[in-house]
Amino acid sequence: MARYEVEAAYLRQKIRGGDYEIGRVLSIRDLTQERGVSTATIRRALEVLEEEGLIRVVRGTGAIVQPPAPPRRRITRGVAIERDPARGYVFPAAAHPQEPWQIHGQPKASVEPAPAPVADVFGVEPGTPTLRRRRVTSPVGEPPFQVVDTWLSHQAVSDAPQIAQPSTGPGGYLDRLEEAGHGPIAWHETTRARMPTAEEARLLSISAALPVLELTLIGRSDRTGQPLEATVRVIPADRVEMVAELQRAESAKWPVRGVA
User: Fold this and answer.
1) Could you say which of 117, 126, 230, 260 has the lowest number of CB atoms within 10 Å?
2) Could you report the per-residue pLDDT of 29-78, keeping only the tens digit for each?
């Protein structure tokens, strides 16, 4: 084993054994002196542990020991959107629709420069000032599970001004949009893996070395056919697994024919 692998194994054992408690800050200087190895060796060992999600390196602070990730939650695709009389639309997520969720920090509605993918959805130039509603949520009792950014088109805000307010009323911004004549809204979703931004890693309290899943939901107006919203969910990749039921096409209908 390379020396950094030896040090990584030592630190891993200390973390998993509880000698280094959750939240403890590991100093590179202290570890270098304690273990009698070079700074480069300790840095490489910490990189390994960060990739495993055991620590989170914060510039100017050190390596922070992370709590074990909760069990992976299943995100099922190919299922129907539900409607809760008390909350409005409920989209397929990683749990039963009635499971209680919590918000971390304060939800925020603000006008921000539209990133290129969002600008492309709305047909505007990247950087165009666009309304963004941001919240960080999780099931009750769990660490932050997802950063949710809902971007709303200029047309959407013009037709339903309340969606730009801190409180959008019963049923949320989607009900306001449909009441303004855009219902029934239709959605499609795409999923991709990527690395988190520094801000996303901070909001989710994860290592910047941990990949995330990005789920983008585009909602279109029935009246105009144009996109009204782009909701981007960013979830740590070690928190979820994607599940889908596969259907047999007509050509694979049972009983099948033998292969010629």
Assistant:
1) 260
2) 999 999 999 999 999 999 899 888 888 888 778 888 988 877 888 887 77
Distance CA 31, CA 237 (A): 29
Burial of 236 (0-12, 13-18, 19+ CB in 10 A): buried
Instruction: Give the residue from 101, 132, 106 showing the smallest Cα distance to 119.
Output: 132
Beta bridge pairs of residue 227? 220
Residue 94 has pLDDT above 60, yes or no: no
pLDDT at 96: 64
Considering the chain, tell me which residue range(s) the CATH 1.10.10.10 domain(s) occupy: 3-65
CB-side neighbour CA atoms (13 Å) of 161: 0
Report which secondary-structure segment, H or E, holds 112. strand 101-113
Cα torsion angle, 172, 178, 184, 186, sign: negative
User: In the CATH hierarchy, which fold is given to the domain comprising 3-65?
Assistant: Arc Repressor Mutant, subunit A (1.10.10)
Q: Are 11 and 20 in contact (CB under 8 A)?
A: yes
Q: Which amino acid is at 81?
A: I
Superfamily designation of domain 73-244: Chorismate lyase-like (3.40.1410.10)
Backbone angles phi, psi at 65, to 5 degrees: -70, 130
